[in-house]
Amino acid sequence: MVTPARSAAARSNRTGRRPGGSGTRTDILDAARKLFAERGYAGATIRAIAQEAGVDGALIHHFFVSKEGVFAAAIEETFTPAEMLAPVLDAGVEGMGERLVRTFIDKWEEPTTDQQLLAVLRSAVSNEEAAELLRNFLSQELLGRIVTSLNIDDAELRATLIGAQLVGVAFLRYVLGYGPIAHVETEALVTMLSPTIQRYLTEPLNTADSVASKPEAKARTAARPTKKAVGSGSAPTARDRDGDGRARNARPRDSLGRPLPYGAAGVERLAENPDRTPVESLTEAQRLLDAGRPFEAHEVLEDAWKSSPAAERELWRGMAQLAVGLTHRARGNQAGAVALLTRGAGNLAPFRDAPPHDIDVAGLLAWARQLAGNSAGDADADAEVRPLPRLRTTD
Hints:
- Helices cover 58% and strands 0% of the residues.
- It is mainly alpha-helical.
């Protein structure tokens, strides 16, 4: 068994300044995670991170825009959502709870990532800004994507319940080293947690404890389309479906993608269309951005991301993340905006020298980094930054 309580390895002090090279970004992240673990989020300043990494502070702004961007990158590169989600989602609903718990616990007990995770969690419990960045990551990139893939009611509540279980156990086991939970065998821990996580993923929630028990939620439930029970004796948990019979949540949304009560007048939903050509996807996404509908632009770009060739997948993913960043900004969630804009720019950067489909990667990078700095309250950011990106050089 891997011992949960591990002391942080001492890192040799770096001296001098050097220009950014291929390993500089990694060095900055390593230094930041070390300081986040030792000093917490508030104590890990840009200057301190630069000194620890042996680089000029301007390089941190170049790679990450702000300290929020550094922390967001530390979260993503520590949890590696693509790697974590694949084993959880690819095998279907049956046993999903166990796969999620096992993947999460295994991540904590990897010698290469345990100290990184400790840095993230310690920062989040000691600083509200760091906590908000972690919440955004869990809801957008990890747990939120899992429950959304199931197209079930109370998805946000379910993701929150799962997060409470998993993050709570991680905090008690790996940060506090509290009681028997700090020493129980990994396999026993997975066995104990899995049924609860599976219930949160697939079974009806207890209405006595669910948001569905509130009067306003009951009114929404009454306005929903009637659903037939699935299978003999099963609860009425059939999914909403579109006109083609495909599973799709029928709950109306506003122009920024926020759910509205069933029966409310929301914006017209876009039909899923993974068969758009790249130019059609870019044109439609630009139309939606210009109309002030970045959430739906994200959906168009996400369709393209899912159907794109492997060589272009991170490019489309990056553009979808920029649209989500704009959505967060329009909703007033500045920390979420910084995190997604920074993350999207990071995925776009490798395509700068040879962008396909006339995509203005250089312009999008400059726009995203400037807007992220503006959202983070960077005094050097241009207050007149363009609020909307242009996706193609030919537009």
